[in-house]
Structure formats: C-alpha cells, structure tokens
Design a protein that fits this description.
alpha/beta, elongated, five-stranded mixed beta sheet
C-alpha cells in the first residue's frame, strides 16, 4: 500500500479511532493504530513481534487491531462493498462482454475456506472435508475483481450450495430484486442478467453453471463450459489477490470465532480499497481452496417449468457460443 493510500485510509478512519491524551499517558496516534492493524492483517505476525516493531504493549496491539477492524467494517464497508447501481451494472455487464465475450453477466460467485482454530463449542461443524477447521467466505465480484457482495461466517462443513441457499443473495435473487430486469435475445430465447458459478452452484435463471462433464457431453457444451470457466476465473483471481494481500487469511486465524468474520469482512473491504486505488500486486498462487464437489445443495432443486426455463437459457447461450 502506497503512502498516499495509507494516509487517505487514516483520514477516513480518524473520527472513529481518535483517542484523547490523559495526564498519565499519550494516546497512540491514529496512523500508528491503522499501521498496527494493517501489519497484522497483511503478515499474520504474532502480537509479540508487532509490539516490538511499534513500541506498544502486546495487549494494546490486540485491542488496537480489534478497534481498527471494527472501524473498517462500520465506516468503510457500506461504501466499499455495496449493491451496484443500474449504471454500475451496465459497466459490469459490458466488462464481462469485452474481456471474455460472455453476455448478460452481472458478476461471478464462488466460495473459499478461511482456516480457524477449532472453536470450543460445536467444533465438528467447522471441520471441513480438507481436514481443517474453517469458516466459508462466499463472494460475488465484478469484472475488475472487486467484491460487491460477501457472506462470511458459515461453518466449513457446510457445502457451498447450502451456504448460497442460506444467504441474503439467494433471497434477493429468488424475489427478483437482485439484478435489473434486462434481457437480450439469443437463439430466440430472452436471456436475463445472471451470475456465473461453478459446478457446485444450482442452475437458475439468474445463475449459470457449467454442463456436467462425462458421457454424453457435446463439443458445444464443452465450449460453453470453457467460456464460463474463463469468466469465472475472475472470482478465483479475486480470492487469490485477497489472500495474497492479507495473509492472515492463509494461515490459521487464532482470533475468537465471534471475531473471525469481522476480520475476513475487513480484509474484503481493504481488498476493494486497494483495487480502487490500483495498488501493485504480484500475481502468485496463495493456496486458494477450490471446490470440486458436484451437487445442487439442499433446498435448491427445482422441477417442471422452472427447471425447463433454466435449461432453455443455458442452451440458448450454448448455441450462441457455437456460432461465434
């Protein structure tokens, strides 16, 4: 993070973090408070080492980190992670069309696991199939790898599709209020705006997933899957950059289970902040957890006419791609 971006961050958080001096001690300046938190999130260095670096007590480092994380979520999250406006949706749709030639896309959705220390209560719920204890971060990103919706805190044992079905995103999508009602006709079918997901996602009119690969898959369907996979790399790269910048998300988070979600949320806010300010990033693989499970998830099966409409839309896009 460049000094200019850091100073602007301090200005934004100053009203929340300013403390008064007393006759017994000088208050820790706002810029030092922010730096302590940023250093902790970016390196996952233990508080003892951070205490030596900044010349403050260990308990002070811990309390400052909690205060700054809380301030980031309270002050910055409403501005940095929010539902796009109509004009912003037009930019997102055009961005996916220009970069990956995939029309009618309003975002890409996926989930990733954040390792945690085994909680004292209900620890088995957080034990995932990889053999770690974790919580799940579900994120929706635009074509610039910026989050516009996040859902944090579900236990790692839950399948991605189940996390999706329990989210407010699913409620809004089911109610028809998540995305603008813009359609474009392909192969005689009116295709609405949609999100792109992986094979663990359900197939909905507003959420596209790849065709199951195996016996009977056609070359046209494989071509559709390839194009969808390319566009979905946006959210996978976003998770990679998120964990690359904020390395506390790679290692086991030793914070209390009630505070881990706030840390993850603050890191997502800071990710968007860095992306908006064009901070440099070295592309590397930071151990992103991928989901390879197939399945629709509990409560997401739809039969009859609704399921038929979902297939019509996906088949129309498949036919459209085969003519390109």
């Amino acid at each position: 993070m460049r000094r200019g971006s850091f100073n602007l961050l301090c200005v934004t958080l100053r009203p929340w973090l300013t403390r008064q001096n007393t006759k017994y001690r000088q208050a820790v300046p706002v810029d030092i408070r922010v730096a302590i938190c940023i250093w902790r999130l970016a390196t996952n260095l233990e508080y003892r080492s951070i205490s030596h670096l900044f010349g403050v007590g260990i308990s002070t480092c811990c309390s400052i980190t909690q205060e700054v994380v809380t301030a980031i979520n309270a002050v910055m999250k409403p501005q940095c992670i929010k539902h796009p406006s109509a004009a912003e949706f037009r930019l997102i749709v055009q961005g996916f069309r220009d970069r990956w030639r995939f029309p009618q896309v309003a975002g890409a959705i996926d989930g990733t696991h954040i390792k945690i220390r085994a909680p004292p209560d209900n620890s088995s719920c957080y034990y995932n199939r990889k053999g770690d204890y974790s919580i799940i971060l579900q994120g929706v990103v635009d074509h610039r790898m910026r989050f516009w919706d996040i859902n944090v805190g579900r236990p790692g044992k839950i399948h991605d599709a189940r996390v999706f079905s329990l989210s407010s995103l699913y409620e809004l999508g089911s109610a028809g209020t998540l995305l603008p009602h813009w359609t474009e006709t392909f192969e005689g079918v009116d295709v609405p705006l949609c999100l792109l997901g992986d094979s663990a996602s359900p197939l909905l009119t507003w959420l596209m997933k790849p065709y199951p690969e195996g016996g009977g898959v056609t070359p046209q369907q494989l071509n559709f899957n390839h194009r969808l996979s390319q566009a979905c790399m946006t959210v996978e790269r976003a998770f990679g950059r998120l964990k690359g910048h904020w390395r506390c998300l790679i290692k086991e988070c030793d914070a209390h289970i009630t505070f881990v979600s706030r840390i993850v949320s603050a890191c997502c806010v800071l990710h968007n902040y860095c992306e908006v300010h064009n901070e440099d990033y070295l592309e590397r693989d930071y151990g992103r957890v991928t989901e390879e499970e197939e399945g629709e998830g509990v409560g997401l099966h739809e039969q009859g006419y609704a399921q038929q409409q979902h297939n019509y839309i996906r088949n129309a896009l498949c036919s459209y791609f085969s003519t390109m």
